[in-house]
Amino acid sequence: MSTTTAPAPRRARPQTVLEVLETAWLSPHLVRVVAGGDGFAAFTTNEHTDKYVKIYFAKPELGLEPPYDLAALRETLAPEDLPVTRTYTVRWVDEAAQRLAIDFVVHGDEGLAGPWAARAKPGDRIVFSGPGGGYAPDPAADWHLLAGDDSALPAIAAALEAMPRDAVGHAVLEVGTEADRLPLEAPTGVEVTWVLRGDAPAGTTTLLPDAVADLPWREGRVHVFAHGEREAMKALRRVFAERGVPRADLSLSGYWAYGRAEDRFQAEKREPVGQIFED
């Protein structure tokens, strides 16, 4: 006789509940939300420069109180009424002051997180789990290559700040216009290139992979961080393969996909269309 053991229930991720302390527009399409408060004691940072959190957005009309008991809510709410998650990079953490910053790309009323951040005011609550992360600049690399669009700008900015001051390499950033460029604290040996797409919607051009392909390729081992729109990342994967960059030296993934809502984009990560790497 055989017995079947039911799988253990998935352990709920701890949630951090903070209050918005202040907001600031960094550019016409990027707003910073600084949050802190008593809930910061529950937050444990990590060494990754691409550290990210999964933010929970609940329907205000339901009056749900954080932290959310997601298992219980799944038993009582319709799927469309459950809190929705969105993944965002933590731009910086100030443990002494017990506060952190998250930068949000805003395109009018498009999406969920951007409009929330644009309207956020002191006292509003932000609920998230994490942080996760997977990249920090390798000080042993001969040079560094960072590439991304608006969505990767916070992680790239954090990586540049964390690099040794004698680091060398390239950072290629795609944004809309000159007004979307930000001051960056990069080592003097890291050349920063801004690629402007103008009126073209984000995710509809090959400007970013083309700019990376045109870079002068340095000698030695390169450590790559490239994130942004999914199809652009697939194109960059081919560029790096042609250059012989080992996969172990690549941090490469799509943060979003043109024409896809976040939930569909996340679901497609398990499908061939959503795979950046072919194997």
Q: Which properties best describe this structure?
A:
279 residues; Elongation Factor Tu (Ef-tu), domain 3; 2 domains; 6 helices; globular; oxidoreductase activity; SIP_fam; Riboflavin_synthase-like_b-brl; SIP_FAD-bd; FAD-binding FR-type domain-containing protein
| CATH fold title of the largest domain | Rossmann fold
SSE order in H/E notation? Answer: EEEHEEHEEHEEHEHEH
Side by side, the strands of the main sheet go: 1-2-5-4-3-6
* Annotated CATH architecture of the largest domain: 3-Layer(aba) Sandwich
Corresponding CATH superfamily of the largest domain? Nucleotide-binding domain of ferredoxin-NADP reductase (FNR) module
Which structural class should the secondary elements be placed in?
alpha/beta
The averaged pLDDT comes out at 93
- The portion of residues forming beta strands comes to 25-35%
Give the CA-based shape.
globular
User: What kind of sheet is the major sheet?
Assistant: 6 strands, antiparallel, barrel
Question: What is the subunit organization of this protein?
Answer: single chain
Distance between the termini: 40 Å
The tally of helices reads: 6
Q: What's the level 1 CATH class of the largest domain?
A: Alpha Beta
What is the count of distinct domains? 2
Q: What percent of residues adopt helix (DSSP H or I)? A: 10-25%
Radius of gyration: 20 Å
Sequence stretches where pLDDT stays below 50 over 5 or more residues = 1-8
| Tally of strands | 11
Domain FAD-binding FR-type: 10-138
GO molecular function, one term: oxidoreductase activity
InterPro entries: FAD-bd_FR_type, FNR_nucleotide-bd, Riboflavin_synthase-like_b-brl, SIP_FAD-bd, SIP_fam, SIP_rossman_dom
Organism: Cellulosimicrobium cellulans F16
